[in-house]
Design brief:
With 228 residues, this protein is an all-alpha fold. It is built from four helices and no strands. α1 runs antiparallel to α4. The longest helix is centred in the middle third of the chain and has 166 residues. The N terminus is likely disordered.
Length: 228
């Protein structure tokens, strides 16, 4: 899309070209022979006739004045065009200045946002560093505790092994004692059965003797006449 400034500039340049073409197409002053043959019909013809009657210096002066007038008109036209272009450029510059101010405000806001984000990133990095340091400290402490627990566990394993040996020794001794007691109880059972059998035999003998004594006593205490 073509900017209005360039369209106007192109139009002004076209007007300048047309002005130059019209200036270049202005008829040259007629010669003395053409003036003598041309009848007087208009003021312009009278000017040409007056020019034809002038001497060379006067004619050169008149031509120089006309060229100066044309140059002045051309300069005024160019000045007017330049004034229009300058006004248009001034408006364009004002718009650019407003755009620059707006962009400056946007840039300042973006820079402020960037600074805020950078500060947030710094704060988060500090928090991350603190967390990492806390984690490393916790890891060191946990490693020390793990090593200490390993030592305690190893010591407890040794104690358990020693207690296990003692337990096995005690259990073996207990089993040995139980076996001895079982053998002793077995012998006592046999002895008890033997004593019980001996007691029963003795008891039967006592009963038999008691019966014999009772029978003998009865016989001895009975009257003689009843005997038999």
């Amino acid at each position: 899309m073509i900017s209005p400034f360039f369209r106007k500039k192109g139009t002004q340049e076209g007007q300048e070209d047309r002005s130059q073409e019209l200036a270049s197409q202005e008829p040259a002053p007629p010669s003395s022979e053409e003036i003598s043959e041309t009848p007087v019909q208009s003021p312009q013809d009278s000017i040409f006739i007056q020019k034809s009657r002038m001497d060379k210096k006067s004619l050169d002066l008149v031509l120089a004045v006309e060229q100066m007038i044309q140059a002045k008109q051309h300069t005024e036209l160019q000045n007017s065009e330049l004034q229009d272009r300058l006004a248009h450029s001034g408006g364009h510059i004002d718009r650019l200045n407003r755009d620059v101010k707006q962009l400056t405000r946007v840039i300042e806001e973006r820079e402020k946002s960037i600074l805020d984000l950078e500060q947030k990133i710094v704060d988060k990095n500090m928090k991350v560093d603190q967390v990492a340091e806390d984690y490393r400290e916790l890891e060191r402490r946990m490693t020390a505790e793990i090593e200490e627990l390993k030592s305690v566990i190893e010591l407890e394993k040794q104690k358990y092994g020693s207690l296990q040996v003692k337990h096995n020794d005690v259990l073996a001794e207990k089993n040995k004692r139980i076996h001895e007691l079982e053998e002793r109880i077995g012998r006592q059972d046999v002895e008890h059965q033997h004593l019980k059998q001996k007691y029963e035999t003795t008891h039967q003998e006592k009963v038999y003797l008691a019966n014999m004594i009772s029978d003998f006593t009865n016989r001895m205490s009975a009257p003689i006449g009843r005997e038999g």
